[in-house]
């Protein structure tokens, strides 16, 4: 279990450091053009997600995200007793990642972010971003687990650009982003609403997965009349 907690802390920390650090770098190098900064932020985040999921999935499952951990526990893939430890490890790791990014760019260890991200559009965006991410993870984990690294990376890449919130979709990283007053930041006062929206999106994803994607009794996909073909034949 210590290896699992360590892997989750390390992975979430590196993810947070990449999100925040690439945001700072993008802002520094973009010449004041936010779209260029966001593009750099997106590419770095997607790239590190692919690497981290590939690297850490054999050790901890590479959840790197409290909502993913809770969803996996609800699906029976992770013991409920391990959830509190995993969530704490992810959150502390993410905070350490924020501190690391701040220090790399000559900033104070922690600084409260001042970027306001509030309102119905932002909350809806976070619910949708988390819904898409969780639905993709649980569906692909069931049918094509070898494609999870690319699935996670591509889902976040899309989320950065089609959601108004730029797809935080992760409570631990949301908290970390509130600890750096930078391009990727979020005012700490806005964090609770984001986490509630993320939780709502995850719950809806589980419901939709069970209704539409999960095998039904008899080995059938919900709504289909023919059995699921054996692996490798479809």
Q: How would you characterize the largest beta sheet?
A: 2 strands, antiparallel
CATH class: Mainly Alpha
Radius of gyration: 18 Å
Class by alpha and beta content: mainly alpha
N-C termini distance? 37 Å
Low-confidence stretches: 221-234
Q: Widest sheet: strand order? A: 1-2
CATH architecture: Up-down Bundle
Q: What is the total tally of β strands?
A: 2
Overall 3D geometry? globular
Strand fraction equals under 5%
What is the count of helical runs? 8
Examine the coordinates and then state which fold CATH places here, giving the name of the CATH topology. Glycerol uptake facilitator protein
Question: What order do the helices and strands follow?
Answer: HHHHHHHHEE
Describe the overall structure.
This protein has a single domain (2-216), classed as Up-down Bundle (Glycerol uptake facilitator protein). With 234 residues, the protein is an all-alpha fold. It has helices at 2-29, 34-60, 66-74, 83-104, 120-143, 148-162, 171-177, 191-213, and strands at 215-216, 220-221. Residues 221-234 have low confidence and may be disordered. It has a two-stranded antiparallel sheet with strand order 1-2. The chain is built from eight helices and two strands, in the order ααααααααββ.
């Amino acid at each position: 279990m210590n290896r699992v907690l360590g892997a989750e802390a390390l992975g979430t920390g590196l993810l947070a450091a990449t999100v925040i650090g690439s945001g700072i770098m993008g802002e520094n190098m973009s010449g004041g053009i936010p779209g260029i900064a966001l593009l750099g932020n997106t590419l770095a985040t997607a790239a590190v997600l692919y690497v981290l999921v590939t690297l850490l999935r054999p050790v901890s499952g590479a959840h790197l995200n409290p909502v993913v951990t809770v969803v996996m526990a609800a699906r029976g893939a992770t013991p409920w007793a391990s959830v509190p430890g995993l969530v704490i490890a992810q959150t502390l790791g993410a905070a350490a990642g924020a501190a690391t990014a701040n220090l790399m760019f000559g900033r104070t260890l922690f600084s409260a972010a001042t970027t306001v991200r509030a309102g119905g559009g932002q909350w809806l965006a976070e619910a949708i971003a988390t819904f898409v991410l969780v639905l993709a993870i649980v569906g692909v984990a069931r049918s094509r687990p070898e494609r999870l690294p690319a699935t996670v990376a591509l889902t976040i890449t899309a989320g950065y650009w089609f959601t108004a919130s730029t797809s935080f979709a992760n409570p631990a990283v949301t908290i970390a982003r509130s600890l750096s007053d930078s391009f990727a930041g979020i005012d700490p006062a806005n964090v609770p609403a984001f986490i509630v929206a993320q939780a709502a999106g995850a719950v809806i994803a589980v419901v939709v997965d069970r209704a539409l994607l999960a095998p039904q009794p008899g080995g059938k996909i919900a709504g289909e009349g023919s059995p699921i073909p054996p692996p490798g034949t479809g």
